[in-house]
Write a structure and sequence with these properties.
InterPro entries: Ald_DH/histidinol_DH, Ald_DH_C, Ald_DH_CS_GLU, Ald_DH_N, Aldehyde_DH_dom
CATH class of the largest domain: Alpha Beta
Protein name: Acyl-CoA reductase-like NAD-dependent aldehyde dehydrogenase
Keywords: Oxidoreductase
Family: Belongs to the aldehyde dehydrogenase family.
Radius of gyration: 23 Å
Distance between the termini: 39 Å
Structural class: alpha/beta
Strand order of the largest sheet: 14-15-16-13-12-18-19
GO molecular function: oxidoreductase activity, acting on the aldehyde or oxo group of donors, NAD or NADP as acceptor
Oligomer: single chain
């Protein structure tokens, strides 16, 4: 838990200041269902103050005008601090949103440092300055910071996604207003402490937890130059419409309904084990999970037996227990949403092979049993809409063309997998799937590669050198003959 006493204030202009609002946001344990903390719910004047601080820091402060080397030095200190406080971060996120602690240690605590270190590694080689020469002219092309960024992050991997946005933004020289999700503001408070201790100048990052109405005010604020959002597709559409009014720069990392395609030559043993985390990581609350598993009809029963046996070995329970693999969902509202999808699957004729209810003996926590559906038609609601819980649909196909058609029969296009004994064959199938990322035999792409979505899964890319692109404006300067400019990066 954040224990500095700052959780009664907002981080604006490099200081912990009293909120102008008297409203609060209560952080509730998904396991005990009891309150564990509260923070101010920022008001419109609070957001205006945060944006003004970020604007002042960008227009008149040192950060955009410091060298890349200096910005790397500050963020390297942040990386060191993330490593030093990893155990605290893991426990904090587990308390906030119920992520099983063993996963929290890798995904929620180690993950942000890995992301930051990757951007620190990539930054020196990014083409901040490049020269162009042709018969039609000679120029220098500059990539300059886009300006003041509103970073709006979700509750499922809050610190990881915050760093995914802040690292490239800050290295580019931007300033930021960070808006954490109401369910998980505490890790953002801890991050503000680390940034301040690392020597980040005042106003470069500001933290304002807020409800939806005030968040819309931030997104539409005329002094915000760019919005970076991760969350639901419905919210992404709303944000895109607000940004479109002012032609504001926006990137959106949205929902998914990703497919794992098992070809007829796949070894089901390792494939099923890959899907342990590939389909159920963070209790199903990850947008890139493979929640549609597409299997050869001739091997459907074989797969269902193996997959159900694996899922049955995933302990459900107290998220602070290192053995737990499925924890509670983040809120009672989210559990109700997931249970509604399970009812829909049953009503539309799919068969529950495993799970489908609430586990017994776990008190008042917001749990749903890991659930496997078979007999799923691609048109069913559970095969089309993002559930965001531990619910997986198994769909059968007769040939590879049908498998690809089922994989692509989705409004989403975020992630996917192909499992096969022939990697080249799998690669060829992967190229036919309309999605931003495809993992061949469960192989991760790593943070040096861009991630993001086709179709309703978003706009833009994060991670890799492409992750910087969203935080820069490109300027071309025509050069007189013989002139060689001096450009500092």
């Amino acid at each position: 838990m954040v224990s500095t006493g700052t959780d009664s204030k907002l981080f604006i202009g490099g200081r912990w200041v009293e909120a102008r609002s008297t409203e609060t946001l209560t952080v509730t344990s998904p396991f005990t269902t009891q309150p564990i903390a509260s923070v101010p719910s920022a008001s419109v004047p609070d957001v205006d103050a945060a944006v003004a601080a970020a604007r002042q820091a960008f227009d008149h402060g040192d950060w955009p005008r410091t060298s890349l080397k200096e910005r790397i030095a500050v963020l390297s200190r942040v990386s060191d601090a993330l490593g030093a406080r990893a155990d605290e971060i893991a426990s904090l996120v587990t308390d906030e949103m119920g992520c099983p602690i063993t996963l929290s240690r890798s995904m929620q605590a180690a993950g942000p440092k890995v992301v930051l270190d990757t951007f620190l590694e990539l930054a020196p080689d990014y083409p901040w300055v490049s020269e162009r020469q042709a018969a039609t002219g000679r120029s220098v092309v500059l990539r300059e910071p886009v300006g003041v960024v509103a970073a709006v992050v979700p509750w499922n991997a809050p610190l990881l996604i915050s760093i995914m946005k802040l690292a490239p933004a800050l290295l580019a020289g931007c300033t930021v207003v960070l808006k954490p999700a109401p369910q998980t503001p505490l890790d953002a408070y801890l991050l503000a402490e680390l940034l301040s201790e690392a020597g980040l100048p005042d106003g470069v990052v500001n933290v304002v937890p807020a409800d939806r109405e005030v968040s819309e005010h931030l997104v539409a604020h005329p002094e915000i130059d760019k919005v970076a959002f991760t969350g639901s597709t419905a919210a992404g559409r709303r944000i895109a419409s607000l940004c479109g009014h002012d032609l504001k720069r926006v990137t959106l990392e949205l929902g998914g309904k990703s497919a794992a395609v098992l070809l007829d030559d796949a070894d089901f043993g390792p494939a099923v084990e890959q899907l342990r985390t590939g389909s159920f990581r963070n209790s199903g609350q990850v947008c890139s999970l493979k929640t549609r598993i597409i299997v050869p009809r001739s091997r459907e029963r074989e797969f269902l037996d193996a997959f159900s046996a694996m899922v049955s070995t995933m302990p459900v329970g107290d998220p602070t227990d290192p053995d737990t693999q499925i924890g509670p969902l983040v809120s009672d509202v989210q559990r109700g949403r997931v249970e509604g999808y399970i009812r829909s699957g049953r009503d539309q004729g799919a068969q529950v092979v495993l799970g489908g209810g609430r586990p017994s003996g776990l008190g008042d926590g917001w749990f749903v049993e890991p659930t496997v559906f078979a007999g799923v038609d691609p048109s069913m609601t559970i095969a089309q809409e993002e559930i965001f819980g531990p619910v997986v649909s198994v769909l059968a196909y007769d040939d590879v063309d049908e498998a690809v058609a089922i994989a692509n029969d989705s409004a989403y296009g975020l992630n996917g997998s192909v499992f096969t004994g022939d990697p080249q064959r799998g690669f060829d199938v992967a190229r036919r799937i309309r999605t931003g990322t495809v993992e061949l035999n469960g192989s991760p792409v790593g943070f040096h590669a861009p991630i993001g979505g086709f179709k309703s899964s978003g706009i833009g890319r994060e991670a890799g050198p492409e992750g910087f692109d969203a935080y820069v404006e490109i300027k071309s300067v025509g050069l007189p003959k013989g002139f060689v400019p001096t450009v500092h990066v």
